[in-house]
Design a protein that fits this description.
Elements lengths: L11 E2 H6 L5 H5 L3 E5 L2 E4 L6 H11 L5 E2 L1 H7 L11 E5 L10 E5 L7 E4 L2 E4 L1 H11 L2 H15 L5 H6 L11 H7 L7 H12 L12 E2 L5 E2 L7 E6 L8 E6 L2 H7 L10
Helix pairs in contact: 3-4, 4-5, 5-6, 6-8, 6-9
Length: 267
């Protein structure tokens, strides 16, 4: 048998590997490989994460599918997919079915809604946001829109522009509310979730990345730079907050980090 090529380092069709003489059926059933989906295998030591399962889903589609949903968001490197979500692939038709670890969506994508990322066709960031904003509950939908808009640089209302292409699409009625709550300046999914906890609880929307307090050197810092301080800036998104409140939860950590307060020991 010839050397196993690098194609077997990623999810592959077992039947194709056997037909090419790269593996035997017995080897596929052995401990060196494991089955992810019907006729799709991977080396046993491969990390079982969303990126791997998404590539396996594409292999299962035999090149006819496009990664969508959280699989596409993963390839856009947003880090917004909840732990344990299944891979998602969009196919126009065929016998491919949803199974454990995989959700199959049947839809037709326009050519400008597909990009190739890391060698795999995925929905564009905008199309991915449009789909997940329709498919997911409100908070998850806003998290996705924040992450994708911030990553790809599109304005959240562009999702509504795309929605006009598909006036009968399921879930489109909830899109305006998702767009209304979105803020592409959010730095992380947890920041979005915290903001939504406040806003949906009746508080005014905090200003993302607004300078909240000057440091001793006179330059402003944002909430991400306070190193152990819990900060709330009163006011509405889009206008400077009238007042900032900073509650130090670990002031010694911030104090020790300032270079002009460090003690120099003489030899």
């Amino acid at each position: 048998m010839r050397d196993i090529p690098s194609m077997l380092d990623e999810p592959f069709r077992g039947s194709e590997a056997v037909a090419l003489g790269l593996l035997t059926p017995g080897q596929l059933r052995g401990a060196r490989y494991r089955r992810l989906f019907p006729d799709v295998y991977v080396r046993a030591e491969a990390a079982n994460d969303l990126a791997l399962m998404s590539r396996a889903a594409y292999a299962l589609s035999r090149g006819t599918g496009v990664l969508g949903g959280y699989s596409a968001a993963e390839f856009w490197r947003t880090g917004c997919a909840p732990s344990g979500v299944p891979a998602e692939v969009i196919v126009p038709e065929g016998e491919m079915r949803t199974c454990p670890g995989l959700v199959v969506h049947r839809d037709v994508l326009a050519s400008d809604e597909i990009r190739t990322v890391s060698g795999v066709p995925v929905t564009t960031a905008l199309r991915t946001a449009y789909d997940l904003a329709r498919w997911r509950p409100l908070v998850d939908a806003v998290v996705v829109l924040d992450a994708l808009a911030g990553r790809a640089g599109f304005a959240p209302p562009e999702v509504l522009d795309l929605a006009r292409r598909y006036p009968r699409a399921k879930g489109r009625r909830g899109l305006p509310r998702v767009v209304e709550l979105a803020d592409p300046h959010a730095d992380s999914p947890m920041e979005t979730r915290l903001r939504l906890l406040l806003v949906l609880g009746g508080l005014p929307a905090p200003v993302s990345q607004h300078p909240v307090t000057p440091n001793p050197l006179g330059s402003p810092v944002t909430g991400d730079d306070t190193q152990g301080c819990s900060t709330w800036a009163g006011g509405f998104t889009g206008s400077p907050p009238p007042t900032s409140y900073t509650v130090p939860t670990a002031p010694w950590r911030w104090f020790a980090a300032q270079p002009h307060h460090r003690v120099r020991h003489s030899a």
